[in-house]
């Protein structure tokens, strides 16, 4: 039986930030969809102690792939070793190491090593994985460098909030409305067009033309991962509008004894250089936070209200024997 080849890659970048800051960003995998452009969603399966087990969804060469990975964190050495337990074809195995070195001038050197094998070791499959791995790694390192070098204002750049509505209706109908985003232009006048593709069950690629609060039109593209049994839909903008560097969020439907609570969560990284062009000279981060909170909150509360109306106005005919 032929031995499957093990392919190795190494990427490195210097970051003008303390090593501890850089390590903190790579250790916080649950927030990677907000911090790292290729990552769509990270679902924690086990976060006990220094061991982590995660389900990861990532864009690779334009398509969404998913795998389960186990990570071992060593904060003292500023090192994280990982190994995929369940890889996405054509990858057969994938492992590697994140490491952060403190440099004498106070900056940090971030290194990411990968070792992977490909089922059958076909040249075209190896090339596909190498292309995806190289592009994603370069994007991730660039994202981490940009964020870490803004570490003194990072807490002000990151904005997290949620809106909620109470529904006196079936949770299934609420989820159905949120899931069928392709139908939203029928009831949302600011949406001019929505194209929704679901080639893989539960993975939706969405493109929409929308009218922004200031009257400008913008095309947004996002990826949505749907969990119907959990009543959740997580989403990640792949082409955010001006003022927003990254935007990830979640719709969640939570039934209880007396009804249903529907929650829209938003996680945003602001793009500081867009503040003056969008909001005018003299505007700062506080104004940008208020603007984004208002704009996104208004859009999500409108959708929440429509989901409420959809569930509460449904006609339920009595069963006939």
UniProtKB/TrEMBL annotation:
Protein name: Cyclase
CDD domains: OtcD1_ARO-CYC_like
InterPro entries linked to this entry: Polyketide_cyclase/dehydratase (IPR019587), START-like_dom_sf (IPR023393)
Species, as recorded: Streptomyces piniterrae
Transmembrane stretches, start-end: none
């Amino acid at each position: 039986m032929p031995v499957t080849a093990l392919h190795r890659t190494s990427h490195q970048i210097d970051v003008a930030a303390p090593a501890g800051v850089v390590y903190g960003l790579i250790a916080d995998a649950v927030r990677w969809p907000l911090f790292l452009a290729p990552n769509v969603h990270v679902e924690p399966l086990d976060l006990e102690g220094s061991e982590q087990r995660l389900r990861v969804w990532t864009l690779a060469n334009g398509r969404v792939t998913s795998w389960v990975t186990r990570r071992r964190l060593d904060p003292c050495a500023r090192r994280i070793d990982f190994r995929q337990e369940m890889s996405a074809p054509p990858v057969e195995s994938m492992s590697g190491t994140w490491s952060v070195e403190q440099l004498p001038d106070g900056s940090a050197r971030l290194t990411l090593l990968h070792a992977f094998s490909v089922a059958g070791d076909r040249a075209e499959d190896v090339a596909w994985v190498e292309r995806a791995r190289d592009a994603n790694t370069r994007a991730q390192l660039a994202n981490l460098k940009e964020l870490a070098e803004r570490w003194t204002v990072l807490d002000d750049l990151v904005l997290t909030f949620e809106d909620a509505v109470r529904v006196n209706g079936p949770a299934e109908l609420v989820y159905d409305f949120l899931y069928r985003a392709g139908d939203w232009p029928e009831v949302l006048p600011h949406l001019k067009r929505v194209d929704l593709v679901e080639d893989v069950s539960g993975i939706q690629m969405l493109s929409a033309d929308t009218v922004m609060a200031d009257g400008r039109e913008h095309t947004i593209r996002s990826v949505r991962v749907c969990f119907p049994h959990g009543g959740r839909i997580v989403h990640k903008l792949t082409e955010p509008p001006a003022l927003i560097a990254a935007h990830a969020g979640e719709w969640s439907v939570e039934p209880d004894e007396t009804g249903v609570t529907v929650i829209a969560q938003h996680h945003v990284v602001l793009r500081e250089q867009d503040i003056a062009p969008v909001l005018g000279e003299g505007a700062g981060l506080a104004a940008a936070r208020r603007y984004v909170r208002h704009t996104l909150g208004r859009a999500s509360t409108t959708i929440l209200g429509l989901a409420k109306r959809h569930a509460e106005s449904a006609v339920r005919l009595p069963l006939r024997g």
